[in-house]
Amino acid sequence: MAAGLLLIVTGLAEPRWAKAEVVDRVIASIGNDAITQSEAVDEYRLERFLAGESPQALPDPAQLEAARDRLIDQRLLLLEAETEGGKLPDLPEEAGKLLAQAREKFPDESAYQQAVRTLGMDEQTLLRRLALQVVTLRAIDQRLRPAAWVEQKEIETYYQNTFVPQQARRAAGPPPPLEDVEAQIREILVQKRIDELLTAWLTELRSSHQVKIHTF
Amino acid sequence: MAFLAFASVIAVCLAFPSRASAQSAEWGQQVVGMRLECDAHLTLAAFPNELAQKVGEPLDRRKIQETLKNLFATGRFRELRAETQPTAGGVTLIFVARATFFVGSMHVEGAPDAVDPSALVTASRLRLGQQIESADLDTVRERLLTVLKENGYYSAKADSRLQPNPETQAADVDLTVTPGAPARLSGVEFQGALSVPRERLMAATGWRPGKHLTSTLLERGLFKLHQFYGKQGRPQANATLKSRTLNPETNTEKLVVQVEEGPLVHVQVQGAHVSSSTLRELLPVYREGSLDAAALASGEENLREYFQGQGYFWAEVKGEQKSSSNGSKVDITYKVVRGEPGVFVGFGFSGNRTLSDGELAAALTIHPTDFFRESGVFTSKGLTRDVAALRTLYDSRGFLAVRVTPRREDSYQGEAGHLFVHFEFEEGPQTRVRQLRLEGLEEATRNGIWHSLFSRPGQPYSPARAQADREFIIDYFADRGYPHAAVEWSASEPSDAGDVDVVFQIEPGDQEKIRRVVVIGNEHTREGTIRHELVVRSGDPLRQSNVLESQRRLYDLGTFSQVQIAPEDPQAPEAVRTLLVNVEEARRWTVGYGGGVEVQRSGSNQPEGQLKASPRLSLEVSRLNVGGRAQTLSLRGRLSTIETGGAISYLIPRFPTRRDLSLRITGLVDRSRDVLTFTSQRREASVSLEKRYSATTYLLGRFSFRRVKAQDIRISTQLIPLLSRPARVAMLGLSYANDHRDEPTDATRGSYSLADAGISWKKFGSESDFFRIAGQNATYYQLNPHLIFARNTRFAVESTLGPVTPTTDIPLPERFFMGGSESHRGFSINQAGPRDAESGFPLGGKALFLNTLELRARFADNRIGLVLFHDAGNVFSKIQRMRLLKFTQSSPTDFDYTSHAAGLGIRYRTPVGPVRFDVGYNFNPARYQILDRSVDPAGVVEVRRLPHFQFFLSIGQSF
After folding, report:
1. Nearest-neighbour CA in chain A from B576: distance (Å)
2. Which top CATH class is B184-260?
3. CB–CB of A5 and B20 under 8 A?
4. Residues of A in contact with B94 (CB under 8 A)
5. Which of B911, B916, B912, B901 is nearest to B858 (CA)?
6. Which residue in B80, B220, B630, B697 has a CA-CA distance of 20 to 30 Å to A60?
7. ipTM entry
8. Does the fold of domain B591-955 match that of domain B264-337?
């Protein structure tokens, strides 16, 4: 008994018996620019925060992978923006607008403040992260919008095949004429086209930059 | 009881759940220690700037994140994670990593004879210093197999293996191939509309059934097809390899070649004759297979220039092209009206106030008539180029608006066919720099650059000069470890006074320094020997000039066939880099052999010798890199009818560690009959120490100990005991040489000077006390591209240290002899100077003077040369008897006069130097006497004269 107790005490007191714990790791890289697991976790939490949800939860593996991929895409797009346009702008106003939009999604101010505290970032860091998102979106728009041309016929087709049936399902009365909604439909289609082009662009960027996934 | 205790332990361990990394309870705990666990010999101490988390601070999530990113950004790690381990007083932080390895040396084993191992290395696309891991080896193997397949090795196997070195992080790559049997050609199918029988096409390629086709043979065959069709009048023919199919059962391959013959092209030139070989050089239809209007116009221009080059300055050429209706035939006719031949008599300048006529003339390629160019050199294209060159010259002086107008005068001074060109200049205003700003630099750097720039205030301004300044600034920073310096420049609009302000915006970027220098690839050479030559050092900025100088010094050792110096992972944005020095050692054993023939008067019973061809063979075996110290042991042997012997020498460069000193120890044995008077047997050992001051200047100190015995002596018996005794000579000597020739074996400009002194003294162990002084000076002047004037003057004197007695005179083999293809060509080998009054054989002398003048003309792209020479001098009995202005002998026993010879020589350039044939005519050859005792024992004096004509055939210039 004494020997057993001794073993227990020894096991508690002797650090060599304690298993080393991984606190962070490199999970992806673009060249020599690493993306750590903690960054991916922060990205997941930021996404929840912007959606008005509590950022406290930890991501499951699939969610972590998605956050990792979003970070890779963001870094690639920022690299391209820097290459084409030089130093990235700060954009404090636009970042502030994004933050204000996120704030509105919380039920009240205390929930919002709690979420900010849980996020673990000070306001400066949060605004910087949001500014990078704005820069990324702008880079996408600048690059891809000119190529996202939509024909008049496509607008008409969308109006007939999608918009009108949607209005009918909502039973919101007769659908507005095409001229009134043309601009909206055009924007929807342009956004779709941009998404397609973005997917292709990101694929090209991943193959032209040394993107690696690490499982160490 | 024991079981309960054991179970308790298990229960306790199970009670501690494994913790998720992101929710680590260790955040905020004190970090009591940090270490790096890695498969390379790296420690955290090497990364002081990358560690945001410090020992003694609370464990911080952001700092761990930052540290991981910083460490990864160094490029030294390919996998990285941070772990914590509970420790007394807090936690120990452990960075667990897998290191990045970089390509070091590459070795190829098993390459077949038909494939150069270096081609396989190239095919791997691995570069020294690039990142590599095991996963990359699959791609390398595929590339090797592709190259082997292209060379007919379809069943080849290839393997590659990494040998990482944890100390240096360099990984040697071993490429192993097993080629298997190469496939043989079974047949070739030619596809396409063919006008030529397939058998002829096959013959044209040089491919034969049963042959092993490497990629080189394949390319050559396709090229030969193209040439074949060109000769058939189808310059647009194209043959491409469509497929190469293997039959694995028989290991044979069949080729399918797609042939597009193109139209039949017939070219004729009317109004003048041009050889077909010249047409092939001039016309784009032959060079490029082009048949469009631009090609036709280009052909007209080229033909016009061709005729102008022959002196038909007013030649006109008009081309016409007609195709058949189905495009299968094209007729091209160039109608030439040459006009009358002319002479380009000269050019003149007007309006040039700033630049002199001489400066402008130096920029021109057109050239008026002279001795070698009867019509002069003039073409319209050449004139256009010269006008552009003059404009560039003015532009470089700030005359940005200069106008240069050439005006041809076709009958200069009323003479029909005399062409003269006037260049008229409107210089315009000169733009100067008013103000120069260098932005982005510290003052010290600005001062270092300022005076080297063209665009300084007050200097002429031109965009070309500013661009040159930009490149200078980039090079300046690159040479100080700033390889990514960015420099942009701009100039303001000219002011009313014509001045501009120039601004250079400079971003030097990060300076790259050398972390350490790693030497790899040396199997036999000591690392110390290599490091001694390196100029690059740890801690220094990474300068390209130092890298190149280190490379040059290593090549100079003569030990390496290849030297590569590159940073590890050059793409990584690191400020401190490991530099890899990869050497490939040359073969340590080298064998050289040669043969030749000398034609001149040589050994016979006659005092003046007989004209003979003397064959010679030579062999040299060297062992390089002895002891891994870049030292060389050489054995040389020579065999000819004149000379037989061998030598052994040991060379220690960088003696003992000084780069400017080298030591050579030599022993030799030889037997020669190059002096007809005697056969000399020589045994010699010497030590020489050379100090090199620069690439052109050295000082050589030597001590030689030799024993020379003269045999088969052809001189009077009274002189034999005096001159023929075996002589032991121990000589201490010093030589100084300064060589500024552009090419030592065939100089066209520069000079060469040599001063030599030596003393043979009893205190050194010599049997004979004498001193010797010699000097030589040669100069070379290039009078024009085809003509070189060369002069060589030699002087030497020796004398005994004390009074001359029968036993103290200078021995025969130690005297001066002269004559032959390498010295005075009025005499055959060693025939000049005093002679024995009884036998008539040369005795040598104690003073020597020779002056040679040569006019060397070169033709046919410097392949053939003609030489006019004059040799004047002689060997004199002693310095006091040297008579340079005396041209005749007072008697047949008086040889102290200056002999003059002139002659003609032909040179033919070969890879080993110019082969030469000289004919010399001696204006005052020596008379000498012999005592014929065959009839009267008292002897009858017979006076003879050496022949006037001498002939020489050898290799190399005379000096």
Report:
1. 15
2. alpha beta
3. no
4. 20
5. B916
6. B80
7. 0.84
8. no
